[in-house]
Amino acid sequence: MALLPSKLPLTYPNSTLFSSPPRLSSLHLPPFRVSCAKRTGKKRYPSEKKKLKLKHKEVLTTVENKFEGTWRLFKLGVPVEKDPGKDFHGLSDALMQEIAKVLEFPVASLLPREAFSVIRKSFDARKMLKEPKFVYTVDMDVHRLLILEPRARDFISDLEPKVGLMEHFAKEKVSNDVISIVHDLKSNQEVVGANGFNSHSGPYLRMSNGKPKIAVVGSGPSGLFASLVLAEFGADVTLFERGQPVEQRGRDIGALVARRILELDSNFCFGEGGAGTWSDGKLVTRIGRNSGSVQAVMKSLVYFGAPKNILLNGKPHLGTDKLIPLLRNFRQHLETLGVSFYPIPVLGFVTIKFGTRVDDLIEEGGHLTGVKVSDSRDKLKLSKQKLGYDAIVLAVGHSARDVYQMLLSHNIPVIPKEFAYSGLANEVEKGRGKVPVADYKVAKYVNIDTKNPSSNSVAASRSCYSFCMCPGGQVVLTSTNPEELCINGMSFSRRSSKWANAALVVTVSTKDFNDLGFQGPLAGVEFQRELEQRAAVMGGGNFVLPVQTATDFMDRRLRVTSVPPSSYRLGVKASNLHELFPGHITEALQQSILAFDQELPGFLSSDALLHGVETRTSSPIQIPRNLETYESTSVRGLYPVGEGAGYAGGIVSAAVDGMYAGFAVAKSFNLYHGDLETVLGKAQNSGSVICTCTSLIETDFEQTVVGPVTATVELMKNT
């Protein structure tokens, strides 16, 4: 049983910045301006809605032959009472009526359903609508339609592609899984270069089989998909994972939850599948839901056992119970391709298990030539070995802080990223009948009047928004050190618990780190660590979580010691969470909660319970790399990818980044030559903003966000 030190200081490097701010009743609210940022953009971007309407009227490029290929129809709305419900993904009578309206075809029942296929289905319950509805995207096979219903020809002749409403594809738009894509590329080109590179010699354990030897560090989405691409192209891939495979990892997590035994390298953060395995399992992304790269990842997940409805749902979700067998199938496929899973072979045979930590890189003349590894449970590192490789794909997750320090020891640049920290709002709603499980997203922009700034404010403005809504889930411990406390939201596929959670994110910048005395490339890491340690002490140790009701948080007082029930299983303690954060962050959260309550009445109540603290949503650093080759800008042979390197923010975006990196490495060794953009489209690199949120599987941002702190608000459903 791990106990926390009682002497841990509760003050920050600059204690004046964390002095207890005045209560809400005495705050000077007028200097603050809180404006709503609804998804319509009506207030923040007053001209965007008008522009969107005009775009829908714009006709795209002229279609040469409207009677061939595929027409894609967007935004086909079906009211809830006319739709079979959330679990139906076929063509209902009501949907056929909507299709007939778009085609201006007089009798919907005469349209052959065999010519249409549902591509996507989502649920829209925004207040601006007269009634909630399901929204469909449907593909129409023109050739099949004309064979079955020739009278549709006249109606097709009048169709014109319009932005966001209707598109035409001369050829059938088909995307394959990663395995099929690689096989097709190999069959269409002569795969050369098995010996077209220079091998490095040295005193390392290394095989010589005429293939490039690639080490992939980390078995999260990035590492798995990079390994898959490289192995399918014929590279000799070794996958290193400091944690355990999902079978043993599940037992280690069970010991943590039931007996408070924390395995430092096998927990909610470390192990097969990465931190996203025991999380909400969201597959939502903002890098292009219908893009070729995202579809390739999604279809690969289906290939390995995910339900097919993730290809159609507007907000696809797997859940931990679905991810575990999927990862097992993924591993077995890699093994059939010859991918090695370490520890190192002992007595002449290979034990297929994980538990190997990469302790250092081997560098010769500005080029990486190998790695130093040891058994992750060998605290004395007596099992350390040197292994030679031609390239290293660094796909560590956001919690591998020791790896960041190791990179700096090799003078490999690590850039601190601006990020945010948040509070998590949890509201319990189960999907009832036709309607899917409750989901929401709110956003506010808190602007501090620079002419009359608050005494403890260090920034003029901050964005505040909800993030990673996890309905029907629970709060879990994601600490990797018994002296630090951080949390996350997770759920199973059915999302059937009586709780839900969502992070309330507040942006912070490097200026915030510097004002607290944290400098250098790892300032964000130190900022995270400080808050995690403070939360651990506030909870009293033994992984007990500090919590506070939303009303007490707003009033900056602790009036109640008996708090509402929580889904967190290791115990909670009523605490002054408003003292956990810097004063200006507490102010921003308070202003946001007030505004959110106006938009979602009931958001602020004594039943809402804030939990602290979440810090591991994404990486607080970025490792610079070449945008085209994915190779490090400072050392040859190193390919930093995924969330830990600062280039992704969720399961799907991390998998996409690893997939592109796999192709880039294969191309550098002449295993593949060609233009991947023609197959999957151009890769979208993330921006430089990082934000904190309570739920790790983030969402993929075009601008990635990770967080150092999160308070979780949890509401239990009245039954």
Automatic annotation (TrEMBL):
Pyridine nucleotide-disulphide oxidoreductase N-terminal domain boundaries:
213-269
Alphabetized Gene3D superfamilies for the sequence = 3.30.70.2700, FAD/NAD(P)-binding domain (3.50.50.60)
Q: Which residues cross the membrane?
A: none
Q: Provide the FAD-dependent protein C-terminal domain boundaries.
A: 432-617
**Domain of life here?**
Eukaryota
- Which Pfam families does the record cross-reference, listed alphabetically? FAD-depend_C (PF21688), Pyr_redox (PF00070)
Q: Which PANTHER family match?
A: FAD/NAD(P)-BINDING OXIDOREDUCTASE (PTHR42842), FAD_NAD(P)-BINDING OXIDOREDUCTASE FAMILY PROTEIN (PTHR42842:SF3)
- The entry's protein name is FAD/NAD(P)-binding oxidoreductase family protein
